[in-house]
Design a protein that fits this description.
Helices cover 36% and strands 29% of the residues. It has 102 residues and is of the alpha+beta class. It has one domain (2-96): Alpha-Beta Plaits. The longest helix has 16 residues, at 16-31. It is globular.
Length: 102
């Protein structure tokens, strides 16, 4: 299983409250449409903290990298990617998740 962590810093001019609303309420509606997406979580701090390097971290799971590439090659994937790029600077971290305590 491939896990993608997207470390997001909101774009200049976007307030923390606007970004939090987008990350929790708006963007997930686009992510839910990605074919082959096995899991999705959005992590946003409860309160603004300007000392943090990121304003949110999303987690997405796909069977493998081919499934990820196929998903983001669709119209739904392109829309989700464009929406994220419009709201945040992102760093993507791809990993094979190993669960030790569940």
């Amino acid at each position: 299983m491939l896990k993608i962590l997207s470390l997001m810093k909101r774009k200049d001019g976007l307030s923390y409250d606007e970004f939090r609303n987008w990350a929790i309420n708006d963007h997930p509606k686009l992510a839910e449409k990605l074919p082959g997406l096995r899991g999705y979580r959005m992590n946003v701090p409860i309160a603004e903290n300007p000392d943090l390097p990121y304003d949110a971290i999303s987690e997405m799971w796909f069977d493998d990298d081919a499934a990820r590439l196929a998903a983001f090659g669709t119209d739904a994937g392109k829309a989700a990617g464009a929406d994220a790029a419009a709201h945040a600077e992102r760093t993507h971290f791809m990993a094979e998740e190993k669960v030790f305590i569940d």
